């Protein structure tokens, strides 16, 4: 992709872009939620902990999630962006890790891993 590492990380971690870019897959524009984001510094980056968020309205969220308990976004140096969703009991629903690797001036290669809870439905979707 043509962008800086900072632009890619910001887009990846900004859940609100999904109303437009992934409309219907993650969230619907007509079903927005008010959330609270608490930001904390990590040794190797930054983490946003989102609260007051319930399960999203999009197709993927309805299929992969029960009730959402915790959602977090992280950026770890030198170039790892993560989105993590857990249910109310703390069980992992979804962890998307993206390694943002500069390949040339103004371009990145993105390597991603999607981890979900065990089960036939998450495996089929992945």
Number of helices: 4
Strand content: 35-45%
Q: Tell me about the largest β-sheet.
A: 6 strands, antiparallel
The SS-based structural class is: alpha+beta
Our count of domains comes out at 1
Q: How far is the first residue's CA from the last residue's CA? A: 22 Å
Unreliable stretches covering 5 or more consecutive residues: none
Strand element count: 6
* Alpha-carbon Rg, integer: 15 Å
Strand order of the largest sheet: 1-2-3-4-5-6
Global outline: globular
Please give a structural write-up.
- The structure is a single chain.
- The chain is 20% helix and 43% strand.
- 13% of the residues are buried.
- The chain has 126 residues and is α+β, with helices and mostly antiparallel strands.
- It contains four helices and six strands.
- A hairpin with a 2-residue loop joins β5 (92-104) and β6.
- The mean pLDDT is 81.
- It has one domain (5-125).
- Strands 1-2-3-4-5-6 form a six-stranded antiparallel beta sheet, covered by helices on one side.
Q: Which helices and strands, and how do they pair?
A:
Layout: H1 5-13, H2 18-21, E1 36-42, E2 45-51, H3 59-64, E3 68-76, E4 80-87, E5 92-104, E6 107-116, H4 120-125
Antiparallel strand pairs: 1-2, 2-3, 3-4, 4-5, 5-6
Comma- or semicolon-separated keywords:
six-stranded antiparallel β-sheet, 126 residues, alpha+beta, 20% helix, 6 strands, globular
Sum this structure up briefly.
The protein has 126 residues and is α+β, with helices and mostly antiparallel strands. Helix content is 20%, strand content 43%.
